[in-house]
């Protein structure tokens, strides 16, 4: 399988690259992204054969159909990490809430949020590639919460990879911060900065363009890579669980193979939703993909009107912070798949220069054949958390946004799979507030309040964080980041 570029080729980069090249250097011509040249087709026989296979076996066969240039033993080692999820037989449980409504739980990995689904196996693959090429890589990450812990967890003690992770001091939840600052490994550096997430991101961009920094990396023979969801090495692991969810409904005798269902995805950078789109293109019977957003509703507007608009919009902080995103990177891959590279380049360059673009009527109609969208305010989300808890299911505020789309976006009474992207433990103050009305609780107090109210235990991965030694205590000003990272390297 070869990979091509969403904005066409600039005459300097190769016309197509291998999977390993696409994941080691994820940026393509004109600032575009890499996409597979074509998608493999999973026919009814393939789906039928996997109705009863376990997650890891099915994942291996799907990856084989992509024919990527990664040795099978490396892929197997990567997939084996799903054995360390709560239940190795069912790393992604699909739970019934009521007739026609199911939740696919993507948070049973080590950091209790769905980033583990892709980052866990991705870490093995990137490190194996670096070793094979005898190269060293630096992963630079700026995080507002979930990506940082998952990236640190997957790369810790892996050969030929170092990670420097920036977070806004005071801008993450206590649990998220503890997950990062208690990571003890020589190849990891966690840096708190005085400022907010935007400051962290800006600092990272400055660093990437700093001549002194790049010269130093060259001198030390270190390559830069990225672990964010523009990296196809993450996307490939995110189409698998959509196929799994569908086959779970077949296994549970809710549907028969071939029946259509809805997938309902809480979206930020659109990696999860893109995985659903690719699964559908590969032959999974999907009626529509519902795109759930919070008050940062750029995607809702785009899907309902064709206008992607970043003019005078600023990020609004919400109770589902992992979705507080305006420029959703993976939308570009949808544009490419639907409208081709020339149009994608035109639209994306317009978005960069004029901060908006408008699809034509025909383009919008095509988009709406696959997607429907709605957004959920914090107040509505709180009510969904409350009502769903009363009906016997505890969920986090990101998952809650899907319930709004479930209520407003379906025009057929078909089974729907909602994706749950975080465990209740990751965003406990919001949930405790929804359940008890109390405000301004610390994570620790909120965790206890919810555990008591729901009569459940706080998972060990979370409760032990409060006892662990803080090994990463660097908190600095933005201008000192370069010096700090160079000292670490
Ligand atoms: C990252 C994240 C999302 C958004 O997923 P995208 O693939 O970026 O659309 C939603 N919920 C949680 C908890 C996340 O960590």
**CATH architecture call of the domain at 79-112 and 233-459:** 3-Layer(aba) Sandwich
Approximately how much helix is present in the residues? 40-55%
Query: Which ligands occur here?
Result: pyridoxal-5'-phosphate
**CATH class assignment of the domain at 79-112 and 233-459:** Alpha Beta
Radius of gyration: 21 Å
Percent of residues in beta strands: 15-25%
Low-confidence stretches: none
Total DSSP helices: 21
Please, what is the oligomeric state?
A: single chain
Q: Would you give the CATH topology of the domain at 79-112 and 233-459?
A: Rossmann fold
- The number of distinct β-strands equals 17
Largest sheet: 6 strands, mixed
The computed structural class is: alpha/beta
The main sheet orders its strands as: 5-6-16-11-12-15
Describe the 3D structure:
The chain has helices at 19-24, 44-49, 55-66, 72-80, 115-132, 147-155, 174-181, 197-208, 211-219, 232-238, 240-251, 271-281, 298-305, 331-354, 361-370, 378-390, 397-408, 428-436, 443-454, 460-463, 481-488, and strands at 2-5, 17-18, 27-28, 32-36, 94-98, 101-105, 136-142, 161-168, 188-193, 222-225, 261-266, 286-293, 307-309, 356-358, 371-375, 416-420, 475-476. The longest helix has 24 residues, at 331-354. It is an alpha/beta fold. The protein contains 21 helices and 17 strands. Strand 3 (27-28) and strand 4 form a beta hairpin. The chain has a domain at 79-112 and 233-459: Rossmann fold (3-Layer(aba) Sandwich), CATH 3.40.50. The strands form four sheets. Strands 5-6-16-11-12-15 form a six-stranded mixed sheet, sandwiched between helices. It has a five-stranded parallel sheet with strand order 10-7-8-9-17, with helices on both faces. It is globular, with a radius of gyration of 21 Å. Helix 5 runs parallel beside helix 6, helix 16 packs across helix 17 (397-408) and helix 18 (428-436) crosses helix 19. The structure holds pyridoxal-5'-phosphate.
């Amino acid at each position: 399988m070869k990979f091509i570029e969403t904005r066409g080729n600039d005459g300097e980069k190769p016309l197509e690259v291998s999977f390993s090249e696409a994941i080691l250097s994820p940026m393509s011509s004109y600032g575009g992204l890499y996409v597979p040249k074509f998608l493999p087709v999973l026919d009814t026989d393939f789906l039928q054969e996997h109705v009863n296979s376990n997650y890891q076996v099915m994942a291996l066969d799907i990856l084989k159909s992509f024919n990527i240039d990664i040795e099978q033993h490396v892929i197997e080692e990567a997939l084996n990490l799903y054995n360390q999820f709560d239940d190795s037989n069912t790393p992604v449980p699909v739970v019934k809430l009521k007739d026609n409504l199911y939740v696919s739980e993507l948070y049973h990995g080590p950091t209790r949020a769905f980033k583990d689904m892709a980052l866990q196996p991705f870490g093995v693959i990137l490190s194996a590639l670096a070793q094979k090429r005898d190269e060293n890589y630096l992963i630079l990450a700026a995080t507002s919460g979930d990506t940082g812990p998952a990236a640190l967890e997957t790369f810790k003690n892996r050969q030929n990879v170092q990670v420097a992770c920036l977070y806004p001091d005071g801008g993450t939840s206590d649990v998220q911060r503890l997950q990062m600052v208690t990571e003890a490994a020589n190849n990891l550096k966690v840096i708190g900065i005085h400022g907010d997430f935007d400051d962290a991101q800006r600092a990272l961009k400055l660093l990437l363009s700093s001549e002194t920094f790049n010269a130093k990396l060259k001198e030390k023979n270190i390559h830069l890579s990225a672990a964010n969801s523009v990296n196809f090495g993450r996307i490939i692991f995110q189409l698998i669980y959509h196929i799994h969810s569908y086959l779970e409904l077949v296994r549970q005798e809710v549907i028969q193979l071939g029946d259509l269902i809805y997938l309902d995805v809480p979206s930020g950078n659109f990696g999860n939703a893109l995985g659903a789109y690719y699964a559908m293109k590969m032959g999974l019977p999907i009626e529509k993909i519902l795109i759930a957003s919070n008050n940062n509703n750029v995607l809702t507007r785009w899907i309902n009107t064709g206008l992607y608009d970043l003019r005078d919009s600023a990020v609004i902080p919400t109770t589902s912070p992992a979705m507080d995103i305006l420029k959703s990177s993976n939308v570009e891959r949808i544009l490419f798949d639907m409208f081709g590279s020339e149009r994608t380049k035109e639209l994306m360059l317009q978005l960069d220069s004029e901060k908006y673009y408008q699809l034509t009527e025909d383009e919008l109609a095509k988009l709406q054949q696959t997607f429907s969208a709605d957004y959920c305010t914090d107040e509505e989300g709180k009510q969904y958390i409350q009502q769903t808890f009363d009906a016997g299911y505890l969920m986090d505020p990101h998952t809650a946004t899907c319930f709004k789309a479930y209520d407003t976006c379906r025009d057929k009474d078909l089974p729907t799979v909602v994706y749950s992207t975080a465990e209740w433990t990751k965003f406990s103050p919001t949930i405790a507030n929804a359940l008890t009305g109390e405000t301004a609780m610390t994570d620790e107090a909120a965790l206890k309040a919810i555990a008591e109210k729901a009569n459940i235990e706080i998972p060990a991965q979370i409760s032990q964080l409060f006892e662990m030694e803080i090994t990463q205590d660097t908190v600095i000003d933005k201008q000192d980041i370069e010096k700090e990272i160079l000292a670490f390297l």
